[in-house]
Amino acid sequence: MVFLVTSSARRDRLSFSSTTPRLITHPCKKNIALYLGKQVFFTTNNFETSLLPFAIPTSMQVRVPEVTSAHFTSSLLLLVVAQKVYIYDYENDSWNVTFVRSGERLNAVFSPQGMFKYSDHPLNRSLGLSFDYNGTLDILIVPGQRGILLLWFEHSLLFSHNAGQLVDTVRVKKGDQTLFSSMFEASVTIHNIAVNENELAVITREDNLYYGNLDVVPSSVIKFADQPIWSEAAALMFRSPGMVEILTPLQDAAFPAFDFQKCLVNIQALLMDPEFHIGRCTVCDPSCLHQCSMHSCLKRQIQVMVSNPYSLGFQATFYESGHTLDGNTKYNLDICLKQQQHWGRTNPNFTSSLKRATISTVTVDIANKEISCVDVKPLSTLISIGCDLDKRIIIQNKISACSKGILDALTLQDNYSFIIQKEFYDPSFQGQPSSQDLRVPYSYSQLGCPLLVYYDTPWKPVVELWRKDTFQEIVDAEYVLLEVNGQFSYRYSLTAQSALCTSQPQNWTTMIKEFGMPFLWNRENYVSCHDSNRNATLRWPDVQYQILGGRTTNQIIFSHNNGIYIFYISIVDPYYSYCKLETLFSIYVYGAFPIPLGFAGVIILLLISSMLGSVWVAYKIPKLLPTRRVHRIRRFVVQLCGRCKTACRCFQFRASSTSGMGTEPPGHHPTPQGGRADH
């Protein structure tokens, strides 16, 4: 069967830059593969049909259509051609072009010795250990595993378990005996290699086929008997565990398409040859338990136990058949993994940031298992060290302003708004009074009824962590609060000094100036003042400490200002969660009595009181005139006034006599002021 050309667009045939072919398979879709040689072939059915050579549209303007590298990702095929990355979407049969980004690839640096240099944090802060090499090495990433690399040239075959930090040679063995410590010492010319999750196959120009397992212990291969299997266009691939296929393209004499000659090699059958001194496999995959009843079977499971910023705990469960009534014996293995920095066995700069989400893998394998265990691959678990999207925080609200009758829920839902007086808020969040009052609409659907808080009692919210609709715990990590409208009529109970800071603490003023709006104070930019920081020494110990929770007893104290506050809360403790835990909530502050008046206020109060008193007297006196009590009061007042006048005359006479001495003309006597009191 020949594939017909489905597009009339002109295309340029691709070729591979190396003299030896490569065969790249999709890491997940086993039927999709790319053959790189003098011609390039792309298949979606594992080379089961004839194929035309793979070509790139002429409109892409490729000067020399020579492929230097290729890689599968999702539904895309990436090809490096003429120092550009061409993207082929094989599901839509479309092409695109981009430039190579240095941050997206792993580079090997060559001198008499090689070492890996990395572009991504944290590996970019150090280099891998050096290793010997003797040519330009190709790097092959093992599918289904993370960090496992094979490096090879015609005379070299190297292996790394940890993305090139440590690189070792692949040994050549016969039984338990090591024949050569490297492929270089075996004096062979490597033509092509193939790998799957745990197997390695090598074909050489000397018609040799080598096979080995990719174990956690130093890897090795064995040599099978010589067979006429090599050709210049031959390439290797694994069809299934233990089944190696040697693939060779053959051109059809009558058609422009190519057919593919396939030679299957049953590795398991070859390993049974007594010449190799290989024992039977004593373990097997869980899917073939029924085939292993006569010998030990192993079933492997991994379960995550606990995690924290420093270590990750696992429990691996092993089942061995034939020892109990139900046919299985259970073994538990506890595994504790730590970051390399916490082990103290690596460069201090070689560590990832606790503030960044990452992905890691854990692989459990059976050490020193027989090479005949072709079906038993390492068990890997993908670990997402990041945010659980189901987590959220809410503020505990057991006593609300509605439950106490201060506010009404129906009123709050009816386009309710409130006024913030100009002297209590600053739209720039710098603590300066505004020039006008602010009317704020209240969103009941988002905030609900405000939490009730007494103004003169130190307060901080009770923060709850929830996962979906299930309560998890009370949050005791460090967090920050900010009134979203800029209200500043509250203060913090601790200062930087009383909070025992060793460096200058962050605050909202500096954070807003540095990062702008909206509010960006979170776990990624938070720096604890309790950690030593040469760039922020404690210069102003009396500033307010604006971080709540954690190791301190810091709280908020409100001033004489009743009303609604809307707070933004953000968890800033980087050790608590990788999630961005933040929310909005409202409170109602009550109980603030009017502030005492000053001197001007006292004068105004007295005037108002005297006016009200005069009105009252004018109203009450006429009603009291006919009564005997009023007459008695009148006689008492007349007598009092008479006595006062007599005293006043005496005082005025003496005063006039004294003042007239030396000042008034002789014989002059002043006339007493006043007169008789009218009765």
UniProtKB/TrEMBL annotation:
Transmembrane segments: 587-619
Sequence ranges assigned to domain CATSPERD/E C-terminal in this UniProt record: 415-627
Region (Disordered): 658-679
Keyword Disulfide bond set for record: yes
Signal peptide limits: none
Sequence ranges assigned to domain CATSPERD Ig-like in this UniProt record: 304-385
Entry superkingdom: Eukaryota
Topology class, membrane: Single-pass type I membrane protein
Compartmental location: Cell projection, Cilium, Flagellum membrane
GO biological process, one term: sperm capacitation
Alphabetically ordered keywords of this record: Cell membrane, Cell projection, Cilium, Developmental protein, Differentiation, Disulfide bond, Flagellum, Glycoprotein, Membrane, Signal, Spermatogenesis, Transmembrane, Transmembrane helix
Gene Ontology cellular-component terms listed: CatSper complex; sperm principal piece
Keyword Methyltransferase belongs to the record: no
Residue span(s) of domain CATSPERD beta-propeller: 12-98, 113-263
Primary role: Auxiliary component of the CatSper complex, a complex involved in sperm cell hyperactivation. Sperm cell hyperactivation is needed for sperm motility which is essential late in the preparation of sperm for fertilization. Required for CATSPER1 stability before intraflagellar transport and/or incorporation of the CatSper complex channel into the flagellar membrane.
Similarity comment: Belongs to the CATSPERD family.
Matches recorded under PANTHER family: CATION CHANNEL SPERM-ASSOCIATED AUXILIARY SUBUNIT DELTA, CATION CHANNEL SPERM-ASSOCIATED PROTEIN SUBUNIT DELTA-RELATED
Designated name of the protein: Cation channel sperm-associated auxiliary subunit delta
